[in-house]
């Protein structure tokens, strides 16, 4: 009995004597489940938890907006934040959306993203996915901020992709209010021309700037409810576009709906899902955009506020997170050339981070669609 304590003592000594080591890249966030520095050789290490600077899904950070002449690591799909919320007509706060979505993605990592539904890992399918950080946008002048975002999209998409066969990188934008989609569509037009837009939202967002903006000024007329009208005016989108999840009221039932159709859109209301199920929605969306390049924009308020309370203009009666993800994943095979998830305002989220978790998974699905169907630009 006298020496029964010795084994335990030696064990404690061995633990205390272990060499302290740091991960290969210090100061970079590591996911809750582990980390991997290289997407191709990512390995799990559960000792690294909740530390470092956040990137989306623990992807490598690349300074995609480096000055001319600076060497930039090549990539195929770029995640870029657009911290802008001064185009809202309701609650502000979406300028913090990009970092909120990254926070919601902390449990995700290239080494731990094998789908139980498909058996695939979208981060390890041969296309390099990176986080470019946020576009630097002023919050003092909307006109200047959108010019900055226009340029950011042009710079990021103009890099030569890592994949030699598909030379133009594609961008997933983390918003930011919905005005930011206008800059993204201007950027995609340079490489793919006019596109069909699949617009997941509770609102139409095709309002005439003279109606939603009051005709006060050009500045006031460019906002998160008019950007699709402006995109149509600029010839960025085709007349084969479609809304999904619509349920918010309109100001003038005859004019607003007629004007929306003139902007090139059909409408799938939120309650239509109750009649057709998710497969019915998928079929309608695919039929509408068949044969064209596609841009998907997901306003997080397409979800019911019980699933996504952290948004600027919440509307009750929306879809569940599972329903939205099922619909997105069902769109496999479309030629997706760009996408975004917007209107995430973390200040209105609950302690469980319901909204940012949902937005992070939406971005994951959008990346999956891009990986599943590579698309060549027109030059």
From TrEMBL:
The keyword Metal-binding applies. Binds 2 manganese ions per subunit. Residues 1-17 form the signal peptide. Mn(2+) binds at residues 178, 201, 203, 205, 299, 301. The keyword Manganese applies. GO terms for biological process: putrescine biosynthetic process from arginine, via agmatine; spermidine biosynthetic process. Its cofactor is Mn(2+). This is Agmatinase.
């Amino acid at each position: 009995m006298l020496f029964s304590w010795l084994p335990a003592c030696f064990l404690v000594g061995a633990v205390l004597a272990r060499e302290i080591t740091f991960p290969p890249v210090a100061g970079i966030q590591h996911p809750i489940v582990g980390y991997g520095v290289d997407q191709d050789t990512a390995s799990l290490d559960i000792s690294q938890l909740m530390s470092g600077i956040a990137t989306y899904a623990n992807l490598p950070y690349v300074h995609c907006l480096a000055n001319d002449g600076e060497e930039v690591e090549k990539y195929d799909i770029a995640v870029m934040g657009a911290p802008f919320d001064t185009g809202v007509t309701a609650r502000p706060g979406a300028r913090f959306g990009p970092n909120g979505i990254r926070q919601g993605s902390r449990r995700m990592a290239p080494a731990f993203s094998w789908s139980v539904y498909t058996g695939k890992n979208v981060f390890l399918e041969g296309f390099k996915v990176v986080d470019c950080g946020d576009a630097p946008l002023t919050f003092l002048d909307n006109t200047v901020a959108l010019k900055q975002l226009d340029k950011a999209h042009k710079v990021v998409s103009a890099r030569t992709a890592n994949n030699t066969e598909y030379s133009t990188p594609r961008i997933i934008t983390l918003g930011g209010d919905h005005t930011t989609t206008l800059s993204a569509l201007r950027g995609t037009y340079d490489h793919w021309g006019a596109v069909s837009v699949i617009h997941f939202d509770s609102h139409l967002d095709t309002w005439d700037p003279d109606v939603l903006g009051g005709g006060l000024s050009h500045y006031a007329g460019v906002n998160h409810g008019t950007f699709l009208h402006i995109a149509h005016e600029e010839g960025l989108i085709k007349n084969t576009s479609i809304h999904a999840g619509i349920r918010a009221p309109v100001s003038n039932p005859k004019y607003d709906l007629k004007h929306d159709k003139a902007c090139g859109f059909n409408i799938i209301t939120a309650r239509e899902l109750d009649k057709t199920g998710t497969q019915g929605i998928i079929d309608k969306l695919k039929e509408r955009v068949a044969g064209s390049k596609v841009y998907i924009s997901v306003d997080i308020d397409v979800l019911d506020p019980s699933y996504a309370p952290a948004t600027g203009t919440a509307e009750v009666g929306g879809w569940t997170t599972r329903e939205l993800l099922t619909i997105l994943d069902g769109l496999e095979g479309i030629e997706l050339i760009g996408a975004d998830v917007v209107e995430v305002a973390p200040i209105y989220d609950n302690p469980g981070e319901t909204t940012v978790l949902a937005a992070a998974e939406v971005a994951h699905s959008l990346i999956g669609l891009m990986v599943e169907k590579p698309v060549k630009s027109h030059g």
